[in-house]
Each structure stands twice: as C-alpha cells, then as structure tokens.
C-alpha cells in the first residue's frame, strides 16, 4: 500500500511539473476509473479531459475513443463530438456531421444542443438555412431554463425573425410565407432580454457557439 501511495505521489509530481494542477489530475483519475467501469458519464468526462488536456496531455485519438463510447447514451459526449466537427478540432471540419450529433443530443433532450442546432439552422451550417426552425429550437431551450438562449430569442424578435407575440403558438412560424417580413416585436424582444439578464451568465453553456 505504501508503495502504491508513493508511486502515485511521484506520478502526481511529474504531472505537476508538466503544468497540470493536482486537482485536475485527481479529477482525471476519478473519471478514468468511472470510464473503465463502463459508466457513460465517466467516459464522457474522460473524453473531455483528453479533448481539452485537463489533468492529462491533450490526446484527440483517446478523446474520440471515449467520447464515441459514451455517445451511445450520453448527450454531453454527443455535444462535444458535434463541437469538434463544427470547428474542426481533432477532425476535419464537417458541418453536416456536427448537425447529426447535435440532433442526437436534441433527441435526448439536451437544451444546449437545441441552442447550437438552432444556430446551425440560423446560419445555414450543415443544413438549409431556416430561421423558423432556429427560433423553434431556441424556444424549446428557453422553456428548459437555458439563460443564454434568451439573448438569441431577443435578437430574433428585435430583427423581426420571430413572428407574433410571446404567447403565439410556435407551430405558426412554419406557416408564414417565405417572403413575409413580419414587423419587429420590441416588447417581446425586451421580455426575452430581461429573462436572460435575470438568469445570469451562461457558465454552463460551454461549447455553445
């Protein structure tokens, strides 16, 4: 036992010398143990550690190995894979693949994926541009309490992208003529801006465009 503790301390010292903090290293080891035990969340967290170099040297090959294992069940792993393809981090940039992973995460009810997929529709990245679909996805995320998306919705209302008042059924968006130019909805825009401010900074929305 004493030998194991000494070995771990020596290994920890080596990691610290490499620029890794003790807390990060301990976190990495906990994730590794969970991942190797078959825990999907642990696999996702371990993949993220390798992806960003948290508690271990950055290694995209190992990152994608664990993320793909986790992605069978874990929407956060799907989000990280989508981010990687969207930005070309560790893999060739592929917006269509990013959209595919975002959709999988949306199917599992991940509100951050709704924000990002909505952004893809708004920009026409990997899909045909569709502001109505973008706003519908942002609305779903907002209803789940995601703070940052309030600003997206505020902009949509301010620019006249989102038609109708705040209580208008969102299914009505798809029925609008493609060339219609709905008036700007300042009252609705201000309402969503205020909601976003009340909920504070979106520190949890990492990897959100």
Structure at a glance:
By secondary structure, the chain is mainly α. Helices cover 63% and strands 0% of the residues.
Question: What features would you describe in this structure?
Answer:
It is a single chain. By secondary structure, the chain is an all-alpha fold. The protein has two domains: 1-73, no CATH class; 93-209, Tetratricopeptide repeat domain (Serine Threonine Protein Phosphatase 5, Tetratricopeptide repeat). Helix 5 (75-87) packs antiparallel against helix 6 (95-107) and helix 6 packs antiparallel against helix 7 (111-123). It has helices at 2-17, 22-36, 40-52, 60-70, 75-87, 95-107, 111-123, 131-143, 149-158, 186-199. 36% of the residues are buried.
* Strand element count: 0
Low-confidence stretches: 4-11, 164-209
Query: What is the architecture of the largest domain at the second tier of CATH?
Result: Alpha Horseshoe
Q: What do we call the CATH homologous superfamily of the largest domain?
A: Tetratricopeptide repeat domain
Main beta-sheet strand count, sense and barrel state = none
| Number of H- or I-type helical stretches | 10
> How would you state the average pLDDT, rounded?
77
The radius of gyration is 21 Å
Give the % helix.
55-70%
Envelope shape: elongated
CATH topology of the largest domain: Serine Threonine Protein Phosphatase 5, Tetratricopeptide repeat
Total count of domains? 2
């Amino acid at each position: 036992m004493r030998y194991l503790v000494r070995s771990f301390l020596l290994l920890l010292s080596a990691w610290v010398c490499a620029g890794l903090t003790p807390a990060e290293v301990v976190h990495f080891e906990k994730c590794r143990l969970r991942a190797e035990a078959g825990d999907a969340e642990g696999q996702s967290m371990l993949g993220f550690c390798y992806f960003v170099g948290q508690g271990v040297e950055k290694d995209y090959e190992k990152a994608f190995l664990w993320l793909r294992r986790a992605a069978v069940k874990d929407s956060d792993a799907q989000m990280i894979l989508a981010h990687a393809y969207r930005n070309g981090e560790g893999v060739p940039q592929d917006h269509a693949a990013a959209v595919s992973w975002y959709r999988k995460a949306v199917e599992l009810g991940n509100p951050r994926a709704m924000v990002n997929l909505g952004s893809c529709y708004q920009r026409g990245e990997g899909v045909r541009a569709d502001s109505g679909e973008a706003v519908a996805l942002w609305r779903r995320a907002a209803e789940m309490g995601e703070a940052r998306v309030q600003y997206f919705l505020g902009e949509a209302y301010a620019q006249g992208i989102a038609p109708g008042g705040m209580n208008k059924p969102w299914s009505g968006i798809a029925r609008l003529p493609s060339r219609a130019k709905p008036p700007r909805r300042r009252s609705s825009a201000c309402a969503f801006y205020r909601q976003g401010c009340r909920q504070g900074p979106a520190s949890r929305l990492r990897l959100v465009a």
